[in-house]
Design a protein that fits this description.
The complex is a heterodimer of chains A (113) and B (114). By secondary structure, chain A is an all-beta fold. In chain A, 0% of the residues lie in helices and 50% in strands. Chain B has no helices and 11 strands. The N and C termini of chain B lie far apart (37 Å). Classes of the chains: A mainly beta (113), B mainly beta (114).
Chain lengths: 113, 114
């Protein structure tokens, strides 16, 4: 079946450091891929998405490229801020589905001043 | 934007008791609500899908008699964990679709059964 695997956290960085959070997937079809972010005490929010191979999703300085050849969707940001501290979830889903998303286990990011 | 309010955020209960978790859509009507569960260091797993006015659909392996879902109105869906045991301790989160791939998530409930 389909699955999503993320790197284990927590990831601790200093402000302005470069961020990479790895995400790989296995899929039986051609899913769309997503990154969600959960700030402390809040619900999950969509950060970015990509609907087909080679698409790049970007938002708030974060970006991720849908790599079919490596089945990956790594999240990157060139310069993190303290306010980026949150839990990040990688997920996949299919168009026309009932809306079911398959999530990775989440990666906690801690950014220190 | 659309908001789903989930309560309680944390609950500790004794083994054998029941716990109700509520998700309310505050400024939109949610005809569908997804309920997820996350064990420590594991993925969010879909437990069930509730639809207003009809029976919920449960994922394989989820006990429908243990996890009672009610979606009696367009703004309220509830999950009741009946006769809770320590192995039910988990993070529960609800999500309402907004069309396409837009979803609004609640803030989650941390359940601890002692």
């Amino acid at each position: 079946g389909d699955s999503v695997t993320q790197m284990e956290g927590p990831v601790t960085l200093s402000e302005e450091a470069f961020l990479t959070i790895n995400c790989t997937y296995t899929a039986t079809g051609y899913p769309s891929l997503f990154w969600y972010v959960q700030y402390p005490g809040e619900g999950l929010q969509l950060l970015l998405k990509a609907t087909k191979a080679d698409d790049k999703g970007s938002n708030k300085g974060f970006e991720a490229t849908y790599r079919k050849e490596t089945t990956s969707f790594h999240l990157e940001k060139g310069s993190v801020q303290v306010s980026d501290s949150a839990v990040y979830f990688c997920a996949l889903g299919y168009s026309g589905n009932t809306g079911k998303l398959i999530f990775g286990q989440g990666t906690t990011l801690q950014v220190k001043p | 934007g659309a908001v789903v309010s989930q309560h309680p955020s944390r609950v500790i209960c004794k083994s054998g008791t029941s716990v109700k978790i509520e998700c309310r859509s505050l400024d939109f009507q949610a005809t569908t609500m997804f309920w997820y569960r996350q064990f420590p260091k594991q993925s969010l797993m879909l437990m069930a899908t509730s639809n207003e006015g009809s029976k919920a659909t449960y994922e394989q392996g989820v006990e429908k008699d243990k996890f009672l879902i009610n979606h009696a109105s367009l703004t309220l869906s509830t999950l009741t964990v009946t006769s809770a045991h320590p192995e039910d301790s988990s993070f529960y989160i609800c999500s309402a679709p907004q069309g396409g791939y837009g979803y609004t998530f609640g803030s989650g409930t941390r359940l601890t059964v002692v």
